[in-house]
Description:
heterodimer, A: 329 residues, mainly alpha, MetI-like fold, 2 domains, flat, B: 623 residues, alpha/beta, Rossmann fold, eight-stranded mixed sheet, 24 strands, globular, binds adenosine-5'-triphosphate, binds iron/sulfur cluster, binds magnesium ion
Amino acid sequence: MRYFARKxxxxxxxxxxxxxxxxxIPRLQPGDPAxxxxxxxxxxxxxxxxAQVEAMRDLLGAPSGSLFSQYWSYLGQLAHGDLGISYTYxxxxxxxxxxxxxxxxxILVGAVQLLSFAIGILLGAFAAxxxxxxxxxxxxxxxxxxxxLQPFWIALLLIYGLGYGLGWFPTAGGYEASTPGFxxxxxxxxxxHAFLPALTLMIVTPIGWILGMRNxxxxxxxxxxxRLARAKGLPDRMIALxxxxxxxxxxxxxxxxxxxxxxxxxxxLVESVFDxxxxxxxxxxxxxxxxxxxxxxxMLLTAVATLVANLIADLLYGVLDPRxxxxxx
Amino acid sequence: xxxxDVRDLSIRxxxxxxxxxxxxxxxxxxxxxxxFVGLIGESGSGKTTVGMAVLRLLQRPGRISGGSIxxxxxxxxxxxxxxxxxxxxxxxxxVFQSSMNALNPVTRVEAQFADVIQCHTQLRGGExxxxxxxxxxxxxxxxxxxxxFPHELSGGMRQRINLALALAIGPRFVVLDEPTTGLDVVxxxxxxxxxxxxxxxxxxxxxxxxxxxxxxLDLSDRTMVMYAGKLAEEQATRQLLRDPLHxxxxxxxxxxxxxxxxxxxxxxVPGRPPDLAHRPDGCAFAARCPERIDRxxxxxxxxxxxxxxxxxxxxxxxxxxxxxxxxxxxxxxRTFAGPQxxxxxxxxxxxxxxxxxxxxxxxxxxxxxxxxxxAVRTEAVSGANFVLHRGGxxxxxxxxxxxxxxxxxxxxxxxxxxxxxxxxxxxxxxxxVARMRGRRLRSYRGSVQMVxxxxxxxxxxxxxxxxxxxxPLINFQQLHGSKLRERVIELLETVALxxxxxxxxxxPHELSGGxxxxxxxARALAVEPELIVADEPISSLDVSIxxxxxxxxxxxxxxxxxxxxxxxHDLLSARMLCDEVVVLNEGKVVEQGPALDVxxxxxxxxxxxxxxxxxxxFAAARS
Lengths: 329, 623
Ligand SMILES: Nc1ncnc2c1ncn2[C@@H]1O[C@H](COP(=O)(O)OP(=O)(O)OP(=O)(O)O)[C@@H](O)[C@H]1O
Ligand code: SF4
Ligand SMILES: [Mg+2]
């Protein structure tokens, strides 16, 4: 139990640090956010209108009071999910903008990651168990080959082949002909739009899991406890699952939780290529046009996601590997 | 009919990058129902390979390349894995060489018993638990540890549990591959006692594999000596002790001295076994054999019956009248006419008069560990007093957990005592170790060097010996260029890795265990230390290599006037090397004095326990 308490305590502490940094960094930056925003709305070379800037300052709830009281109200805002207002999507708040993109990415990437992980683990484990068989050789060769391809290149290939060439799937956007909501038409529309980006990711993401699982499993198969399990005359399936795969899974599970945390960063390219309305594309945009509040909100989200993923990885590891609990306690 | 009958068994390793090796070459032996047979031989002689073949667990790149393994009338050498399943564990079970990793680290011990019990018997539910409880009782472990994970158990406990596991289904034959190597002598002794008792009670047959002659001779009814993939000799153990046939056996026996004698003398086999990828013509042992005759280099000696035993040696065959060639070889001798290592009590007394080098004065160390709100105090060392002399060797002896390593850490300045003081009488005056700082501390760290138990992990596998030895020379003595190279070669020669030029560019994996340990020692010498702290430096090595390392330490003491603190749980090797002995028990010095006195008339129970744990095959032979 101490292990879990420690990990959670550590999580809370780092979370606080991240939130605080997120508060401090923009305040250390030179420049007035209200000016920036007005400039942004007016266009690059327009003369700044003082009155507009003042109005904007009021709208944004410009900082006043001591740093401490600002910090306090920042925490209050954060607790209510208030991340400020986006420059680009004005007058939408950052929370609204992110909220909209959030589910697109989470559903697409979450499903892809889960599926890739399951497929990768199974293929990797089976390849290792049947090491040097024809199956193993093909899996390894194909994975290594695909691993050298760039995801956006695969994406372009798919767009060209399945999109333009055969015209089976739409090549850009998240939906078009339907109204978002829980209705059949929209779901069909969204799914067919998600298909190509999902396929691209499905081709690339399992590679790491396959090769990683295969390697750890092969290493574990050489361990004495596997030999002993063989000597015990246990059925092959039991040795493969309960002894070999169970141990080989440990590093992958931790890696999986981390990968989930890193969803955002990993999808910028693919989402941009498919013009998919998710967080990755949003991040790309925000960087491109220097939408600081949005960027800051996304960064906070990414950092928190990574922290949560880390926490989950640690907790899972603690459940799966009794040695970890003890070593860290 | 024998329970296990191995005929002309050959095993070949065919690694991808290296030449193929016939690790086992036409080996034949048999084991009767309920018989306890020992298999000894030095590292790499193929013992484990034989054991694995009998268990049919050889893995790529190894395979059985010839011969048969008949178990209870069936040749199992070529059965498929499915057909083998009915022999596994029910008939043949095992305890592995490094059973530390033989248990699945992520499941409870109980489950690892339950799966095999349910797999091979009709027992279910409560009956299984009952059976496990009985097995735990058999190996003297509290059944409450059933629900523990392997890492929560000590090495000794794990090994007992492995033993219990091997007996779970009541097998007829058990392969024990170095079941106690790496454990504290006292624990080792009690586990082997346990094995012996259970074997007598349950009547299973055993193939007991070990490189430790003492334990094999102590336990086995019959002993087989293996050399370079072949059996050199096989005899009833009593007979082997009385009348060893093969020169190699004599060499192994010669490595046992009587620690109680005024002057202990051990002989050892010089050199290393041949590279199995390039097996020499004639007798594989010829290069190291003092009894060699002309034909040894040309004709491979055949397995011959001599008296009640079997031997593969020309000279032995001629001497026992099993060879009619009429070559003159003289009568059989009992001893090995090789190099000797001698330690006399008189020389030790001399050394003890040397100048003090380190004074340990009423030193205590208490570790405080937080457990929730409570602070748990562990007295690792309490009130220790002793003196290390220049040009002398002091043994720090005790069971595992007695505080030996804690003391060593304080002496090397890594840890500070909670009370008392350690004074170093170095070349630049007396200094209290715990008060040294900065430059002084660094120079002290140079004067005191450590040599650890495991030469395999102590060297960086990616660096050549030259690079390994150059590092401290550059750091501590600012040597460069040709000076540096000269000194590196000189160091290699000092530790008898000569010619040094041949070794500078080698990597650790190209060396034997003893050679590696010598490199570690050479590295320690690079900074010209005044004190060497050696923590179990030989326990993981073969007997002939052990003698090599002991010899080297001995030379250092005499030629360079360094002091050595030799940490061990093995009193026999302590007597061979050390002038004085300090016995530690639960953090307290319970006894100290000249090595011979302590060993001859131990005053403390703990010392007696350690002495009793030294296997003494000769005692049994004499009675
Ligand atoms: N997987 C392997 N690949 C290639 N050669 C191997 C392999 N395993 C063992 N060998 C070789 O086979 C020979 C016998 O090894 P084995 O492990 O049987 O020795 P051993 O007598 O058990 O030694 P130890 O006392 O160190 O356990 C050695 O020369 C070794 O180098
Ligand atoms: S055959 Fe010759 S070389 Fe070999 S052990 Fe016998 S005497 Fe020595
Ligand atoms: Mg072995």
